Amino acid sequence: MWLDAGPGTLGNLQKHIEIEQLTAVVLTHEHADHWLELPVLYNAIRHYVMCGQIPVYGTMGTLELAKQMCPALDEAFIWNVIADKSRQTIGDQEWTWAQTDHYVETMASRVDVGQSSFVFTADTGPNWDVKELGDSVSLAIAESTFLSHKEDEGILHLSARQAGELGRKISADHLVLSHLAPGEDRDQHQIEASEVFDGRITVAAAGDKYSF
Ligand SMILES: [Zn+2]
User: Fold this and answer.
1) Which of 30, 117, 134, 159 pairs as cysteine with 62 (C-beta 3.0–4.6 A)?
2) Residue ranges of the chain that CATH labels 3.60.15.10
3) For position 50, what pLDDT does the model report?
4) How far is ligand 1, taken at its centre, from the CA of residue 31, in Å?
5) Reading across the β-sheet that carries 139-143, which strands appear in turn?
6) What is the pLDDT of residue 54?
7) Are 88 and 108 in contact (CB under 8 A)?
8) pLDDT at 13
């Protein structure tokens, strides 16, 4: 599963699997940093890999934009529109989506495999309640875009402190902070989150592995 296809991720994905081993792609929303390598995958499937259509689970807004960049979209992808409360079984994974508090329709994801679970917030402001995706999560990857001094600006993203609160709310065994804005101080993100959440916290880095 390839969850969000932001710039640079297709190259990283191929360090682990071949394109033809990909089961499906999930795209949380239409902002460019979350899906713009899908047209690159489209080219690869149609002209080089010839692996047949790959299922994509994405929002309606992302589909509309993808159609403009991938004119024969149906030849490369089987698009399944996801919305608030959508559910899907993919292999041994149970996926559930919930709409967050963001500028465009955006889906946070929960994945359950046996007794283990994983939540990815995608992008959200503080008014989304992560408990819509349940509780007692093994791994939570939360956006943590800036530090708490910017909380008053009404931006629909989370601070590191708010990401820590989110981890506490769902009793995450492991909280990973991601989506830091360019130039953010990684150590300060770790410190702010740890002031409100006493579980394990990691600041995400490309190439790291997080199990659940
Ligand atoms: Zn966004």
Assistant:
1) 30
2) 86-207
3) 83
4) 5
5) 87-90, 93-99, 107-113, 116-120, 139-143, 174-178, 200-203
6) 97
7) no
8) 96
What is the CA(9)–ligand 1 centre distance, in A?
16
Per-10-residue mean pLDDT of the chain, 212 residues long, equals 97 95 97 98 94 96 98 97 98 97 98 97 97 95 97 96 97 97 98 98 96 92
CA–centroid distance, 179 to ligand 1, in Å, is 10
DSSP 172: -
Give the span between the Cα atoms of 48 and 193, in whole angstroms: 44
Please provide residue 37's backbone torsions phi and psi, each rounded to the nearest 5 degrees.
-95, 0
Class of domain 86-207: alpha beta
**0.70 exceeded by pTM:** yes
What is the CA(34)–ligand 1 centre distance, in A? 7
From ligand 1's centre to the CA of 154, what distance in Å? 14
**CA-CA-CA-CA dihedral for 72, 75, 81, 82, to nearest 10:** -120
Distance 40 CA to ligand 1 centre (A): 20
